[in-house]
């Protein structure tokens, strides 16, 4: 865990503990410092709408926060979900400019249920997953791990994106996004498909993403049983990474995870934390005022030695 402030309490709801992160030293050559964040990059629109997400039409503000996280943690891996790419003013292209030439990028489209991949609102580019690594990418794999909808009603795709790199040649670095609907019968098979995709070839695995599944979930066991999860132990395990406003109440859940290949009987992760200061925790009513975060998700940050 990183150093953080004590939790605050409010009458209407628990105000989650805000991280007070001390600046780390530079990463060792083999060390992986991983940020995984669903930035809700093109989610819907106005205050009070069910799909509201802060700063939807201001990608530069989200990118500024991602770059700030990289700087504070001296991170060398960034895994992003619900991110726009390709277009010159998209999140990923802006992030390329912010991080500089030492970084390499990979991306994969993820279609909405209507089959469209274009980012909505005033945004441009395509929606999907993104990986940035402070290394040279030597291989990229995109696997469509969401089973087809047998009813024919949905054209949604949710891929798993993996890269191999020059600096960590023995590790496959991956990100994914799992179906949000708990009633969708495809979720268990999607998790099994993700496990197959990331474990191919017997390499070490680092996998982060928005899994839309909570700690202890039976559906998550193919991954949680096979790999170490960075926030599964410690002084504050399983911190909330998602805030929702439902029926006039705040709802906090852990939906985001970073997994890694286990290392014998010891812990592989040396630190892990959810930076809840970047998660919007305000009520979502038409008159709620400005947000106090940049996504409905908090970024999850994990440190681990390389393979």
Report on the structure:
The chain has 307 residues and is of the alpha+beta class. It has a single domain (30-302), classed as Endonuclease/exonuclease/phosphatase (Deoxyribonuclease I, Chain A). Helices cover 13% and strands 30% of the residues. It has 4 helices and 16 strands. The radius of gyration is 18 Å and the shape is globular. 45% of the residues are buried. The model is unreliable at 3-21 (pLDDT under 50). Residues 35-297 form the Endonuclease/exonuclease/phosphatase domain. InterPro entries: Endo/exonu/phosph_ase_sf, Endo/exonuclease/phosphatase.
Short descriptors:
307 residues; disordered N terminus; six-stranded mixed beta sheet; alpha+beta; globular; 16 strands; single chain
**Main pleated-sheet profile:** 6 strands, mixed
Task: Show unreliable segments.
Answer: 3-21
CATH architecture assignment name: 4-Layer Sandwich
CATH class: Alpha Beta
Number of strands: 16
- Secondary structure class reads alpha+beta
What percent of residues adopt helix (DSSP H or I)? 10-25%
State the CATH topology: Deoxyribonuclease I, Chain A
Strand fraction equals 25-35%
What is the count of helical runs? 4
pLDDT averaged over residues = 90
Principal-axis shape = globular
As a whole number of angstroms, the C-alpha radius of gyration is 18 Å
| Number of self-contained structural domains | 1
InterPro entries: Endo/exonu/phosph_ase_sf (IPR036691), Endo/exonuclease/phosphatase (IPR005135)
GO molecular function: endonuclease activity
Protein name: Endonuclease/exonuclease/phosphatase family protein
Pfam families: Exo_endo_phos (PF03372)
């Amino acid at each position: 865990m990183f150093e953080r402030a004590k939790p605050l309490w409010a009458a209407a709801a628990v105000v989650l503990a805000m991280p007070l992160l001390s600046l780390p030293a530079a990463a060792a050559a083999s060390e992986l410092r991983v940020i995984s964040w669903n930035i809700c990059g093109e989610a819907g629109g106005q205050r009070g709408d069910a799909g509201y997400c802060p700063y939807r039409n201001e990608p530069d503000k989200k990118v500024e926060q991602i770059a700030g996280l990289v700087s504070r943690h001296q991170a060398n891996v960034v895994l992003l979900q619900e991110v726009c790419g390709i277009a010159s003013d998209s999140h990923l292209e802006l992030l390329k400019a912010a991080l500089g030439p030492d970084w390499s990028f990979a991306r994969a489209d993820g279609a909405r249920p209507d089959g469209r991949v274009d980012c909505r609102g005033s945004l441009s580019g395509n929606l999907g997953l993104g990986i940035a690594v402070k290394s040279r990418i030597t291989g990229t794999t995109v696997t469509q791990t969401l089973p087809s909808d047998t009813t024919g009603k949905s054209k949604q795709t949710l891929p798993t994106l993996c890269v191999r790199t020059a600096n960590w040649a023995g590790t496959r670095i991956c990100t994914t996004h799992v179906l949000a609907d708990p009633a969708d019968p495809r979720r268990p098979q999607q998790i099994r498909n993700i496990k197959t995709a990331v474990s191919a070839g017997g390499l070490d695995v680092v996998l982060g993403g928005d899994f839309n599944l909570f700690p202890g979930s039976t559906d998550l066991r193919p991954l949680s049983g096979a790999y170490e999860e960075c926030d599964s132990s410690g002084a504050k395990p399983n911190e909330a990474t998602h805030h929702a406003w439902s029926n006039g109440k705040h709802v906090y859940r852990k939906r985001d995870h970073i997994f890694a290949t286990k290392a014998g009987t010891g812990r592989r992760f040396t630190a892990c934390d959810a930076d809840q200061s970047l998660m919007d925790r305000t009520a979502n009513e038409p008159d709620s005022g400005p947000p106090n975060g940049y996504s409905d998700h908090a970024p999850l940050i994990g440190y681990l030695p390389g393979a």
